[in-house]
Specification:
By secondary structure, the protein is mainly alpha-helical. A hairpin with a 2-residue loop joins β3 and β4. Helix content is about 65%, strand content about 5%. The strands form 4 sheets. A 3-stranded parallel sheet has the order 7-9-8. The N terminus and C terminus are likely disordered. The termini are far apart.
């Protein structure tokens, strides 16, 4: 039933249309027209009964079937020849002592010639003819392609033929006649083309330095089968092992007698055009083998690199685990500890309800002041090194992490206890924190705040708390998260600016370093610390690029339709005018160290543009919600050209609130 259901899948015309090339392929593999026609008929019958699932794969499918059937035909033919040779073996081996001695001597010469071969040719011959392994088995054992094994065997046999020719004055017929009977073949019959193998295997022209791959494989199989059948060979009472007989079989192939490898005799059948198409120049084989060896070397290099990367990843995972443990330890140590009696007045500046928080009352302000001073010196040195094109000093990262851990301990104690719209450092950047760190630093430097200065700081702190609360009361459901963040950031900047204006010249020199002042990530006494993970530098090669690509940026961040954004060109023109002052060329290394005032200008310009877009475009609610809930904004920048010196931009003049 299966055959009937599939019979209609292919038409006779489809099979006949492939018949010509199938016959050519079969003849190139078998060099026997009759056997080739049989293979084609079997392949067509298989296609008719069990066609491939898709008609477009029919040629490839038929090619595979023809090759498999041809290999089976060759294998059967060689097995028949081997049986016939074994049956006639004893009749063909001469028994005179002189002939036996000559063959033994030739046996030794062949074995020595094999052992004198250089690698990898020697091992290829030994594996193939002494261990009786097929090329596929050798390839699997050595981890190389089968074609490479066959090439090595062919080259080894060429070298052996040359050596034996030289030993016998160039007369190949002389030593061939001695070797052929040793493996049970008739030299005369083979030379005359009368043997089955000689009549069926294609012959390659060694003068043209070519070999026929299919014939080489068939010859190797034939020799292997013939030699394996001879368990022992008795010479004058000496029993020779099967491996000795196989060595003689090697010489048969070296001689090129009847196996399609060697000189082309007058009696050899005329080469079929399809068979000629299967021959490959030795120079091409050498090139392919060299490419393969280069590929193997590259794979080894890649494996080494993968192992190195894997090791590096493991090291990074170990570091992450260590940092996780350190963070857990900091969380544990951040738990408020009871304040000893008589030490509750260690808070230098106290205002509002926040002074009653345990984390603030119990904070070690002297330790935090020392850590802030040490980190500031290290970061100033880092800026100077960057200006000179130098990297951080040895151990920099470890020292920064160690000092920062003292500040993190305090930050964890007030986390979630002071209201903020920042998702990082918001609680830490409250004015009461900076006021007490600054007070401790000045106390240690014997330049303490005066009573008048502390009273003024208290007023500024309370004014900040009042302004912050009024802002919260003014917000509605339509207020942007980024707008709330900006309002808080501006209030904290203004409070710190008022505190800094109270400083004497000596105090200013101790607390404010122009190299890092109000820069994100490198000023530990500034609300610019809140910009981390919120404001994204948006660098472009030129100012016009900033204007040309801003609509695309808004479309990707907020899911606006790009065409509608492009229709609101006036809004983006106004935005571009608002940020024009920020487009000063800047080296890439300094992009993260944005100035507080520059970030505020960019944020206010984006909130203004987004409000105008919502009003003009009236987008869907999902877009409006995305805009409202987005906390953060982009800071447009222009990159310096590669030949510009890697100096940071000059600190911008701070504007009044």
């Amino acid at each position: 039933m299966a055959a009937e259901s599939s019979a209609g899948a292919l038409s006779p015309e489809q099979l006949l249309g492939n018949q010509a090339w199938m016959r050519g392929l079969a003849r190139s593999l078998l060099a026997d027209p009759g056997a080739a026609d049989d293979v084609v008929q079997e392949a067509q019958l298989a296609a008719w009964q069990r066609p491939p699932r898709e008609a477009r794969t029919l040629p490839a499918w038929l090619s595979g079937v023809v090759r498999n059937l041809s290999r089976r035909s060759l294998r059967d033919r060689h097995r028949r020849a081997a049986r016939e040779q074994r049956a006639a073996r004893h009749e063909r081996i001469a028994n005179t002592p002189a002939e036996l001695l000559e063959r033994a001597e030739m046996q030794r010469n062949v074995a020595q010639a094999v052992l004198d071969l250089k690698e990898p040719y020697r091992s290829a011959v030994l594996f193939r003819f002494f261990d009786d392994l097929s090329p596929a088995e050798i390839a699997a054992r050595q981890g190389i392609p089968v074609a490479t094994v066959r090439t090595r065997i062919d080259r080894a046999l060429e070298q052996l033929r040359g050596r034996l020719d030289r030993m016998h004055g160039g007369d190949r017929a002389e030593w061939s006649a001695v070797l052929v009977p040793m493996a049970g073949f008739d030299a005369g019959a083979q030379a005359a083309g009368g043997g089955a193998a000689a009549s069926s295997a294609p012959v390659a022209n060694t003068a043209a330095n070519t070999v026929t791959n299919t014939a080489a494989a068939a010859a190797a199989k034939a020799i292997g089968a013939g030699a394996a059948a001879a368990a022992t060979l008795q010479i004058g009472g000496l029993i020779m092992s099967q491996k000795i007989v196989i060595a003689a079989a090697v010489a048969l192939i070296v001689a090129g007698v009847g196996f399609g490898i060697g000189r082309k005799t007058a009696e050899a059948p005329e080469a079929d055009p399809a068979a000629e198409a299967c021959t490959v120049p030795l120079s091409r084989l050498e090139s392919v083998e060299a490419s393969h060896e280069a590929a193997v070397a590259e794979v080894a290099t890649l494996k080494t690199e993968i192992e190195s990367r894997t090791k590096h990843e493991a090291e990074l995972e170990a570091k992450v685990s260590a940092l996780d443990a350190e963070i857990a330890q900091l969380h544990a140590s951040a738990a408020p500890k009871p304040v000893p009696a008589g030490e509750a007045d260690l808070l230098y500046v106290s205002f509002g309800k926040w002074a009653e928080l345990e984390g603030i009352r119990n904070a070690n302000w002297d330790e935090m002041a020392e850590a802030s001073a040490a980190m500031t010196e290290m970061l100033v040195d880092l800026v100077h090194r960057s200006e000179r094109g130098e990297g951080p000093p040895e151990g920099f990262q470890g020292r920064i992490v160690s000092e920062n851990a003292k500040l993190v301990k305090y930050a964890m104690s007030v986390l979630g206890k002071i209201p903020t719209h920042a998702n990082g450092n918001g609680e830490y950047c409250h004015p009461i924190t900076f006021a007490n760190i600054m007070a401790s630093m000045l106390e240690n430097a014997e330049q303490p705040f005066s009573k008048e200065q502390i009273d003024a700081i208290v007023r500024y702190g309370e004014a900040y708390d009042d302004a912050y609360q009024k802002a919260q009361d003014s917000y509605t459901e339509e207020s942007f998260a980024s707008e709330k963040f900006l309002d808080e950031l501006v209030l904290k900047r203004d409070a710190m600016r008022l505190i800094e204006e109270l400083l004497t010249e000596e105090q200013r020199l101790l607390l404010i370093r122009p190299e890092v002042h109000n820069r994100a990530q490198i000023d530990v006494l500034s609300p610019a610390l809140m910009l981390i993970m919120v404001v994204e530098p948006w660098p472009r090669e030129a100012p016009e690029k900033v204007r040309d690509e801003v609509e695309q940026s808004y479309a990707s961040r907020f899911s606006f339709e790009l065409e509608r954004l492009q229709g609101a060109a006036a809004i983006f023109d106004e935005w571009f005018a608002d940020v024009q002052g920020l487009l000063v060329p800047m080296a890439p290394d300094y992009l993260p160290y944005m100035l507080l005032d520059e970030a505020i200008v960019a944020g206010q310009a984006e909130v203004k543009a987004l409000k105008a877009l919502l009003a003009e475009l009236a987008p869907e609610e999902n877009v409006r919600k995305l805009v409202r809930e987005h906390r953060g904004w982009m800071l447009p920048r222009v990159l310096k050209t590669p030949d510009a010196p890697p100096a940071p931009p000059a600190p911008a003049a701070e504007k009044e609130g």
